[in-house]
Amino acid sequence: MNTLNELEDILYFAYGSNLDESDLLGWCSRHGLNYPLGECLGRARLPDHELAFDRYSSARNGGVLDCRMSPGRSVEGALFVVLPGGWSVLDRKEGHPGAYVRRETSVVDQAGNTVRVMTYFVAMPALPLVPPSRTYLDIVRKGLASRGIPADELHRAVDAAKERR
Q: Which end of the chain is more exposed for a tag (fewer CB within 10 A), N or C?
């Protein structure tokens, strides 16, 4: 596993609530922490994965997103530079390593380049899937829209969570 010092040059791939700057700023403010993200370098996609609401969050009062393996599908998100000290803030927000685990993976950027990144995956996915709260869903929708990312895969994940309940 990478140490926080080794992560300085690795980009962060965000695909859920961290796409919404105001939500992340609010969380940081409530916890007395600095905002962890620098420049957004644009959209990217994580191949062979799909969005899933496979973790219950009491803080979000419902299901929260994960990227899970799914050959042929992809998850769209955004690439960010992480500011000094930012990985420890993101780890704390994501509950790493208990709720989510930070892992290195590769995404494809808008130019078609493969980029090494870090992102967060649910540590122990729940089955059945857990529908999200309306508030959380609105935060993710707002974040996707702010980055020009279609919400089609998000809506598919919501439908899947509702069907399997």
A: N
Hey, which bits of 4-61 come out as E strands? 11-14, 37-57
CATH of the domain at 67: 3.10.490.10
Please count the structural domains in the chain: 1
Using a cut of 0.90, tell me whether the model's pTM lies above it: yes
Which DSSP helix (H) or strand (E) runs through 22?
A: helix 21-30
Residue-wise pLDDT for 89-124, tens only, equals: 999 999 999 999 999 999 999 999 999 999 999 999
The answer to the question of residue 164 being in a domain is no
